[in-house]
Amino acid sequence: MLVVGRKPGEYVMINGNIMVMVVKSEDGHLRLAIDAPREVTIVRGELLEGKKEREGK
User: Fold this and answer.
1) pLDDT per residue over 5-47, tens digit each?
2) What is the DSSP string of 17-51?
3) Confidence at 48, pLDDT banded by 50, 70, 90
4) What pTM was computed for the model?
5) For a 10 Å CB count at each end of the chain, is N or C smaller?
6) Whole-number CA gyration radius for the chain
7) Helix H or strand E segment including 14
8) Are 32 and 20 in contact (CB under 8 A)?
9) Among residues 48, 46, 40, which one has the least CA distance to residue 14?
10) 34 and 42 Cβ atoms separated by less than 8 Å
11) How far apart are CA 55 and CA 33, in angstroms?
């Protein structure tokens, strides 16, 4: 796992075609913007965790 610090307006690129940008940061909360091709599936972590719990994993 890569951990990087970013400030609002800064971003990281993944695989040359996925951009993750910090658009807001205050009081320990972040707001991210993700720009990725349509074929890339993006799912929030809590939704994945909930699905695993419902499936009994």
Assistant:
1) 999 999 999 999 999 999 999 998 999 999 999 999 999 999 9
2) TEEEEEEEEETTEEEEEEE--TTS----HHHHHHH
3) confident
4) 0.79
5) N
6) 14
7) strand 11-14
8) yes
9) 40
10) yes
11) 30
